[in-house]
Amino acid sequence: MWNEEQKLLVTVPNHHELAKGTLISIMKQAKIEREEFLSKLK
Question: Where does the record place a coiled coil (predicted)?
């Protein structure tokens, strides 16, 4: 996943499910807060 605004590249596994720790790590790398992530799911 590439964020043009922040010039940030994060690798996201293409799995049906992710382990909680994996998701937390991806969110930290992407500099995404929990609330922002949850709002995008809706």
Answer: none
